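Collaborator request log, item 7. Partner lab (contact: R.S.) asked for a structural prediction of Rhodanese-like domain-containing protein to inform their binding assays.
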Amino acid sequence: MFSLFRKIDSVSTKELLKEVQNNIQLIDVRTSNEYQVGHIKQAKNVPLQKIESFKGNFGQEIYVICQSGMRSKQASKILSKKGYQVKNVRGGMNQWSGEVRRGR
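Returned to partner:
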């Protein structure tokens, strides 16, 4: 039975820094303007308001990031409910110390 209190796994930005060396599914749920200011190279922009229509690989874990970790947590719950394996990135881009790309 589905519970609103389903536990969402999370990772720190330090852990994500190691993971991005691999071919991971990483989605950034910030607005397109926020994304263009600076994002992680591998991240695909899927703003939170469009997360319901996200189509990803069910066989691969999805890492979800936003600015602080709040919107990504919301998005993670939605994706988890749809059957995806999800990890929320705690602290979001505020805590990210890796390389940042600008633009699209």
